[in-house]
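Next comes this protein.

***
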Amino acid sequence: MKKLINYLGKENVIISFVENGDSKDKTQEKLINFMTYLNESEIVHRFILDHEIDDPRINDTDPYQSLEDNFLSNLRIKFYSELRNRCLDFIYEIPNLNFSNTKVIFFNDIIFEFENIINLLSTNNEDYDAVCAMDFYFNFYDSWVSIDLDGNRLLGDFPYFINKEGQDLYINKKPIRVFSCWNGIITFNGSVFENKKLEFRVENFKNTSQIKMKDYNLKTSVADSYESECSYFHVDMEALGFKKRFINPQIRVTYTYTYYYFAKYFLPNTFELFFYFKNYFKSIFKKRNKNMSDLKSKNLNLSSALYEWYIHRKKNEAKL
């Protein structure tokens, strides 16, 4: 993070952090040390390390049972929405902030290199409303929030996307338009937040006055289980016309160092190619016209896609 700040320029960085007094490890201690660095560097920041927002899932009788039972409930989404909105409050307190010339980055507790973030910010020549990385816990992690333009959830294994266009773009390491994503880290064009047009919220599908996922013709199974404050944020972006939302497949982040090196060095080559051939031969034995039928794609010609993969690899090797 310090390298990223130095690269961007200390005068160009604003940091808002909400820990809410909830950590059970050494997070708060490390944040206090980080604040010392920010103070010494005169970087604009606000950290909330005291408890300000109560978790509505906790009750007086059995708090641990309450948290487990309500993991996917609206109470959980309500809590996280309040935390994220509290973090956003700080940027609205910055006088004369030029939102159109600002990027807002949300970091999860991820392992990253600062070059990852620079590349993420530069996605599509900075022509986007939002862009996510890809996060991994051995396989792709955030399939809950990541939905393609056809309304399909992303897959845990290569090629991750069900539709042919998404697969081809992934293979060629190009930004992929999606309906929603988060994936450990996401950056927004600041204009999304100007005048408080958007905030994180919880949605109750029984309330017909609110926008539902089904309003966007997403798959029923996806729409019925789209319980996330991050997902609803994308719903509202869509409604307001912020439609340029991407995943940048070149940016990979993880939650442990072991998986970071796995995702960076091993996964893009050996492991992904293995899954490609596994699905290919599975489709042959099922006599499904050599399509990845088990991935619900009737359009992907495996021979063509594999050829594109091969050409792409050859070009990279030629550069080396």
